[in-house]
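Late entry, adenosine-5'-triphosphate complex.
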Amino acid sequence: MGKPCFQVAVIRGDGIGTEVVDSAIAIIEAACARVGGFQLNYADITAGARYFQETGRDMAPGAEDVVSSADAIFLGAIGLPSIRHKDGTEISPHLRLRERLQLYAGVRPARAYPNAPCRLADGRGSQIDLVILRESTEGLFFSAAAHDRCPVANDQEVQDVLRITRQTTEKLHDFAFNLARKRKQRGGLGKVTCVDKANVFRSMAFFRKIFDERAAHNADIEVGYDYVDAMALDLIRKPWEFDVLVMENMFGDILSDLAGGLVGGMGVASCAEIGDSHGLFQPAHGSAPDIMGRDKANPLAAILSGALMLDYLADKSCRDALRDAARLIDLAVENGFARGRLRPMEFGGDQGTRAITSELLQLVGDTDVVRQTANGGF
Ligand code: ATP
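Prediction complete; structure with ligand written out below:
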C-alpha cells in the first residue's frame, strides 16, 4: 500500500506572498521527510492582484473548483494597494473563498518567543500565549464579500451590515471551547473570553447570548467577558492572562494585528481559517509591497501557518505523523529563537527570507519530537 497522500492547493498570490510560500513549503517538506509515512502533493493556483491587472480576473478559470476539492489550501498573500477595483477596494478573492467554503473559524495565535522583541516593558510579556478566534464569514465583513449587498445610494449614503447568525455563531463558540480544551491538554489556561460590544449593539448581545448557551455545554472551560474597547486596553495591560478570545470578524481583524505586534510583528503572526469541511492557511500579514523582492520578508508566519495546516490534516485524517511534523516545525522555531539562531531583519536582526529558511532547515534536522499522547491540535 502506498503512503497516504494529501492534496494542497497553493496560492502564492502577490508581493512577499510568493517569497514566504516558497520558504514555508521547503520547511514543511523537510519536516514531512523527517517524520515520514505520508506525502503532500501541491497544486499551484494562479490568483491575485497582479493576475487581475493582466486578465481582469482575480483567480484563474476553474481555480475555485480545484481549491474546493483540495484537502487544504495554502495561501501567501493577495492584494496590492496600486491595483484596485473601481470603487477603491482591493482585489480579494480570498474573502469570496472564505464565504464559499464557509471558513468561519479564523485562528490567529500570538505567542512570545524567547529573544524575539517583546513590546511591553513588563517582563510577563514573555508569557503571552493566546489565540484570537476571529469569525471570518459574516460580522462586519458580510458586505465586503459581495459589493452589491450594500451599494452606495446616489453617491450620497452607504451602509455596511454587521451580520450575526445563530448557525455560524454556535459553531464558532463550540470551536472556541474545543480549542481551549486542546490547549489545556498542553498546559494552556483552559479559558475562553467572549469579546463583543453587547452593551450597545443588538447583534453583539445576540453573539453573547449564544456564547452563554454554548458555555453551559462546556462547563470544564472557564469563561470570561470583555467589551472590545476594554479588550484593547487589557491586551496591553495583561495579555498573559488570556487564552482563547472569540469575537466577530472586524474586531478580530483589528485585535489580531495588535496581538501580533505584542509578540514581535506580523512576520510571526500565523493564521488558519477553518470550516466544517475545508481549511485555509496563510500568514496573517498582507503582501507588504514595501519590502517585496528584497529578501527582507520574515517567512516565519507562513512557516508557522504550515504547522497549523499539518495539525489540521492530522485532525482530519486521524494520523499522528502529521501532528508530529507540525510539532517539529513549532519546536524548531522555538529552539531557533531560544538559541539565538533565528534573527529576522524584521526584528532588527541580520537574517532575510533565505537565511531564515536555511537556518530553519538545519533546525528541523536537529530537533527531536516526542509524540504526545493527548490529542494535540492547535
Ligand atoms: P493587509 O491589509 O493585506 O493585511 P496590511 O496593509 O495590513 O495588509 P502588510 O502587508 O501586512 O499590510 O504590511 C504591514 C507592515 O508590516 C509593512 O510595513 C510590512 O513591510 C510589514 N510586514 C508585513 N509582513 C511582514 C513580514 N512577513 N516580514 C517583515 N515585515 C512584514
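Strands lie at 5-13, 39-45, 72-77, 105-111, 129-135, 191-196, 222-227, 244-247, 272-274, 279-281. Will revisit in the morning.
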